[in-house]
Amino acid sequence: MSVQGKTAVVTGSNSGIGLGIATELARAGINVVLNSFTDRDEDHALAAELAKTHGVEARYIKADMSKAADCRALIEEAGVCDILVNNAGIQHVAPLPEFPTEKWDAIIAINLNSAFHTTAAALPLMRKAGWGRVINVASAHGLTASPFKSAYVAAKHGIVGLTKVTALETAEEPITANAICPGYVLTPLVEAQIPDTMKEYGMSREEVIKNVMLTRQPSKEFATVEQLGGTALYLCSDAAAQVTGTTISVDGGWTAL
User: Fold this and answer.
1) Alpha helices of 55-147 — where are they, by DSSP H?
2) CA distances from 20 to 186, 193, 216 (A)
3) This prediction's pTM
4) How do strand 247-250 and strand 175-182 relate by DSSP bridges?
5) Has 60 been annotated as catalytic?
6) Structural domain boundaries of the chain?
7) Which tens digits make up the pLDDT trace of 123-151?
8) Catalytically annotated residue among 152, 184, 201, 234
9) Strand residues in the chain grouped as ranges (E)
């Protein structure tokens, strides 16, 4: 079945990985719904540009992924959700005894709970349409761990578990659920951190990337948002019809260690 004309809802998609995935899906002829918690002219302009460039329908819907009602309302307002990409996420780094409660709650809400609420709302639409794809953007930290990232690691491990449950509950239907587990990805947010890290360590850009940022990524290369978009597109294809309940690592060998 061709993916052209399908509709994808991508959470947290006005920048970075989410926008990269939405762009690759639009390039393949998939209509897209962009989302974030802001409601700026530039948010809606992103959707308009995707529509113009790729000849698809695209729109932006504001929804705060920390709020259960907003998560479900996003799917309801979209009206159609053949492909759900749960991408929204935030991060905070601190030792366990010093980890702020409000940061823990926010990370669990946005990185994990939102995927439960959107999936619960989207599955009835997929079943009605007779086809569906749930793609959860987890992380290498959904399969392994690092110190000082307790909430993020817990949430991403939870996303992998939620993915498996979703796959089992839809196993006899033309609906699949999988998780993409990126390592470090070169996004505008990561790019902006490089100059400060160069100053902090007195290193060149290349040294910072290889010896600081990508110390756990054996390839010593960032993954790209285009590669993650291509992985998502594969999971939407007929070739992946029997790929469900699993993880696909795009991490330069991180989880092979």
Assistant:
1) 68-78, 101-108, 114-129
2) 11, 19, 23
3) 0.97
4) parallel
5) no
6) 7-185+223-251, 186-220
7) 999 999 999 999 999 999 999 999 999 99
8) 152
9) 7-10, 31-36, 58-62, 83-86, 132-137, 175-182, 247-250
